[in-house]
Design goal:
This protein is mainly alpha-helical. The protein has one domain: Four Helix Bundle (Hemerythrin (Met), subunit A), CATH 1.20.120. It contains 5 helices and no strands. The longest helix is centred in the last third of the chain and has 39 residues. The chain is elongated and about 55 Å long. The structure holds fe (ii) ion. Fe (ii) ion binds next to helix 2 and helix 5.
Length: about 150
C-alpha cells in the first residue's frame, strides 16, 4: 500500500487533472460553438482531448487511484465499479463525438445537435469527476483518521 503522503499527492494530482480537463472541455466547446475552427483544427482539438481523457482514465484505472480508495474504504466498492463502467461509456461517447464531427461540425443544420451532445458529454464527465472527487475525499478522511 502507498504511504499516506503518496496517497495525498496522488489525490491532489487527480483533482488537478479533473480541473484541467474540465477547463479543456469548456474551451473546446467554446471554440466549436463559435465555429472559428477549420475542420482539421476541430479534429485536432478533439483528437488531443480524446488522448488526454484516455490518459486520465487509464491512469485512474491502473495507477492505483481506485486501489487506494478501496484499500481505505472497501465499502465504496460498488460506487467504484459504477465509475469504472462510466469510463467505458465516456470513452465510447467521446469517440462517437469525434467521428460525427467530421460531417456534423461544418454543417449549420446538424451542428447544434452535435454541440448539444458535446454539452451532454461535458455534463456527464463533470458529474463523473465530482463522484470520483467525493470517493477520494471519503478515502482521504479515512486515511487522516487512521494515520500511517
Ligand atoms: Fe477522473
Amino acid at each position: 500500500m502507498n504511504t499516506q503522503n503518496q496517497r495525498r499527492d496522488s489525490a491532489r494530482l487527480i483533482a488537478g487533472d479533473h480541473q484541467r480537463l474540465e477547463a479543456k472541455l469548456h474551451w473546446l466547446y467554446e471554440q466549436l460553438a463559435s465555429a472559428t475552427l477549420t475542420a482539421a483544427e476541430a479534429d485536432r482539438g478533439l483528437s488531443q482531448t480524446q488522448a488526454e481523457l484516455e490518459e486520465h482514465f487509464t491512469h485512474e484505472e491502473s495507477g492505483g487511484f481506485f486501489r487506494d480508495i478501496l484499500d481505505l474504504a472497501p465499502e465504496l466498492n460498488e460506487r467504484a465499479q459504477v465509475l469504472l463502467r462510466e469510463h467505458q461509456q465516456l470513452r465510447a461517447m467521446f469517440h462517437s463525438l469525434r467521428q460525427t464531427c467530421r460531417w456534423a461540425c461544418g454543417e449549420s443544420g446538424s451542428r447544434s445537435g452535435w454541440l448539444a451532445e458535446l454539452e451532454e458529454f461535458h455534463r456527464r464527465f463533470d458529474a463523473h469527476e465530482h463522484a470520483e472527487n467525493e470517493l477520494m475525499y471519503i478515502a482521504v478522511q479515512r486515511d487522516l483518521g487512521a494515520g500511517d
